[in-house]
Amino acid sequence: MKSLRRSRVKTWRLRRVFSHGAAERAIHRKGFTILELLVAVAVIAILAALLVGVFSGAGENAHRATCVSNLRAIHTAVTRYAGDNNGAVPIGYRLDKKQFNTTLYSGSSNKWVLLGVLLEAKYIEDARVLFCPSEHDPTQAYNTSQNPYPIKPGTNLQGAYACNPLVNWGTASTPPEWPRLQALGRTPLLADGAGMPERIDSRHRDGINVIFTDGSARWFPRKDFETELNQCTSLSAAANDPQTRLWEILADKR
Whole domain around residue 110: which residue ranges? Predict the structure, then answer.
């Protein structure tokens, strides 16, 4: 009998010991080891990076869509202007440099020029359609201290969209001869500014939106005109030839 009692007491004590050890292990397992924490942090960082990329890409796609919408609105205004002015369209470039094809207001002459004529004549009511939503350069973006709108006398206003540089306006507020819409055929009319690599770097980076005289629009990857673009290293008449070839590429690949 005594032997049986001792055995039962021993068994009960062993159960308590094992039960206590299991409970301790369970309590300790409620936390994380350093390795597990590091793995969790790494996974969270990877997921965050992926989400940032997804949302960033979605934002740029939305900006591209808005950019095309802007170009269509400007095309409509150009078409209306042409209908009221014997087919004339206010496109071209200034100061003998084909890269000077985005100016809206000349601070030196205090005159509206190029697409700015549409704004002055109220064919465009909201100036924001003349600016790219992806623009990061304050000298080209809408209403910044370096590119103010409403205009300030003596200060240039630069838009985002480049005119096909078909005619040189020089320093005047009108061209020596107006391009006529019907005479142009199907050719690029306007595009995201591509005067220098920096102009694209500060916007869509990978390419430009282009709208044609018939109202159709298309995305052109940067690789299609990269060679010509890289030859435009400064604002100079020396860049006129590569600019001409760049616009020819846009016309040939339509």
Answer: 41-252
12 domain residue, yes or no: no
Q: Is 238 among the domain residues?
A: yes
Question: CA 248, 192, 108: angle at the middle one, nearest 5?
Answer: 100
Q: 93 pairs with which residues across the strands?
A: 168
Instruction: Let me know how long the chain is.
Output: 254
Measured between alpha carbons, how far is 140 from 147 in angstroms, rounded to an integer? 6
- Residue 158's closest CA among 101, 216, 73, 90? 101
Pairing of strands 157-158, 217-221: unpaired
Instruction: Give the chain's domain count.
Output: 1
Q: What is the mean pLDDT of each run of 10 residues along the chain (254 residues)?
A: 50 49 50 74 70 56 95 98 98 98 97 98 98 96 97 96 98 96 96 97 97 97 97 96 98 82
CA distance 120 to 191: 21
Distance in angstroms (rounded) separating the CA atoms of residues 92 and 118? 14
Rounded distance, CA 40 to CA 212, Å?
52
pTM: 0.79
Alpha helices in the chain (DSSP H): 2-29, 34-84, 116-120, 181-184, 197-201, 226-230, 240-252
**Residue 14, domain member (yes or no):** no
Six-digit token string for 180: 């006529």
**Alpha carbon distance 225, 220 (integer Å):** 9
Q: Is residue 237 part of a domain?
A: yes
Quick check: 99 and 239 in contact, CB under 8 A?
Answer: yes
For 57, residues 6+ apart whose C-beta sits below 8 A from its C-beta are: none
